[in-house]
Amino acid sequence: xxxxxxxxxxxxxxxxxxxxxxxxxxxxxxxxxxxxxxxxxxxxxxxxxxxxxxxxxxxxxxxxxxxxxxxxxxxxxxxxxxxxxxxxx
Length: 89
What we know:
This protein has helices spanning 3-6, 47-51; strands at 10-13, 19-22, 27-30, 37-43, 56-61, 65-68, 72-75, 83-86.
């Protein structure tokens, strides 16, 4: 799978139907040794923090991805997996 195959797809959580974001505004964490995707980083929804330069991101571990369709990526993620972090530039 190529990054271009994921671009533009919306990420939806199977557990609650929430829309988490779109791949395209995101980053991927890739294992340097194997080349495997470890997680998807989506921008958080807190716009005020991003204005101040301190943007939060949602970390979606690759093992939470259940299905990749033509328009959506379905993930199964609860609060034990999902975590926010501040990305420093």
